[in-house]
Write a structure and sequence with these properties.
The chain has 449 residues and is mainly α. The chain is built from 18 helices and two strands. Strands 1-2 form a two-stranded antiparallel sheet.
């Protein structure tokens, strides 16, 4: 069944270039025009752009799952957080004495847990009768207490090592760029576990399951201090190559001479250069992902995935393994989310599990996909950049709008209420954009072709 609708391709082949051109104009205005709407600083424009590129990668990951296969993943924040764990485990230096104190105990505890589950599953498959339940339960209880007997002392030993500054295992002191594919692997591994469990569920139950699992992952990162310090946060995560630190640039005589020749403040110049390098690095990653995603979408595999999405019953009747293909696409999409999570932590330079909230890292990403155009990779990128730009600027535009509305009002409860509601205008603006797109372009700004 064709998904084409009359008017869906209005604007033809020029629609995408025109929309990306308009988006580019917004960033140029942010960097060059100083007024109530725009800051007029390239430092701000590049700061929005580099996080917008990560948001575009997140939207691309969701589009792979939803646009290709119709899988509703409401646990984006969990897979993003798992990817963010990778720079901590890979790029940070190891905590001296931590592994000797409790690392082996944690590994043995995990080994006991795995062996317990394997034995329990084997007994459940081989045994029959009433005794099966009791035997499996006894194995699980015995394995649980054995696991805790090894795990708890090991964790206490690790967290006792300089708890004010470390108190966790630390990392491997490897280059930060290596942590990005590791983040993909961590998220993909979790996606395999989740997919094997939940992909047999109906779509609405799948969304509820992924929402809960995402929150569970974030809760684990908040509470397991031995892993990444929990809410105590990990600071000082190294930057990826080739991005330097601003202080290093300001101490470089060649850079200082170049700034003097350009008549630029070295502090401003170093900040802009660092952000430009981040933008170039993120654009390179996004370009490779887009190349791979477009190849996959236009391949026989991509056509098969869309056929499964449009009619699972017909695809299954033709011999397609629907659940297996769903698991495949779910893992691919989550690996992209993990990559974005690792990139974001590398950008921030710190791991703060308490900052992972569903509003920012799940539902806003879905708004990006819906506004940009589900099923269209370019639409996902457009939505990621556009919605992130508006999300940031709405924090400034909202109070301006409320001040304007309250200008003609005398002092009183109405004016006070309007001014108090100004911080919430960001959500109102997002809601208005989403409603307008759903009303006038229900398939997104760049619909699937």
């Amino acid at each position: 069944m064709s998904t084409h609708q009359p008017g869906a391709a209005k604007g033809g082949k020029w629609r995408a270039p025109a929309l990306f051109g308009a988006l580019a104009v917004l960033f140029i205005l942010e960097g060059t025009v100083s007024n109530a709407m725009f800051s007029g600083h390239w430092d701000n424009a590049l700061g929005i752009l580099r996080v917008g590129l990560i948001s575009a990668i997140l939207a691309l990951g969701i589009n792979i799952q939803w646009g290709y296969a119709g899988l509703f993943n409401a646990g984006v924040v969990g897979f993003l957080a798992l990817g963010g764990l990778a720079p901590v485990l890979v790029a940070m230096p190891p905590t001296e004495g931590a592994f000797e104190a409790g690392g082996w105990g944690i590994l043995f505890a995990f080994a006991v847990a795995i062996v317990t589950l394997v034995i329990a599953v084997a007994l459940h498959q081989k045994m029959t009768g009433k005794a099966r339940g009791w035997v499996v339960a006894a194995v699980l209880v015995l394995g649980f207490f054995s696991y805790r007997a090894l795990f708890d002392p090991a964790v206490e030993a690790i967290q006792a090592i300089n708890p004010a500054a470390t108190g966790y295992l630390g990392g491997l002191s490897l280059p930060t760029l290596i942590s990005w594919p590791v983040g993909m692997v961590l998220a993909a591994g979790a996606a395999w576990i989740v997919g094997k469990t939940a992909l047999g569920l109906r779509s609405d139950y799948l969304s509820i399951a992924t929402l809960g699992i995402g929150e569970i992952i974030v809760a684990i990162l908040k509470n397991e201090e031995w892993l990444a310090r929990g809410v105590l946060n990990v600071n000082g995560i190294p930057r990826p190559w080739p991005v330097p630190y601003e202080t290093d640039l300001q101490q470089d005589p060649a850079f200082m001479e170049r700034m003097a020749n350009l008549g630029t403040d070295p502090m401003v110049g170093s900040t802009v250069l660092v952000k430009l390098l981040y933008v170039a690095l993120f654009v390179g990653v996004l370009a490779m992902l887009m190349w791979a995603a477009q190849l996959a979408l236009n391949s026989p595999w991509g056509r098969m995935m869309r056929a499964i999405r449009d009619n699972e019953v017909a695809a299954s009747a033709m011999g397609k393994n629907v659940t297996g293909r769903h698991l495949q696409i779910f893992i691919l999409g989550c690996s992209v989310l993990g990559l974005a999570g690792a990139m974001m932590i590398s950008l921030d330079g710190q791991m703060t599990p308490s900052s992972y909230n569903p509003l920012r890292y799940t539902f806003l990403i879905w708004v990006m996909v819906i506004v940009g155009g589900s099923g269209n990779n370019w639409g996902a990128v457009l939505g990621g950049l556009l919605i992130w730009f508006v999300w940031i600027k709405a924090g400034e535009w909202g109070p301006l709008m409320m001040d304007l509305l309250a200008t003609g009002l005398g002092d009183g409860a109405v004016k006070e209420h309007l001014l108090d509601a100004a911080p919430h205008m960001r959500l109102v603006i997002m809601g208005v954009i989403l409603l307008l797109v759903l009303r006038f372009s229900p398939r997104g700004l760049l619909p699937e072709r």
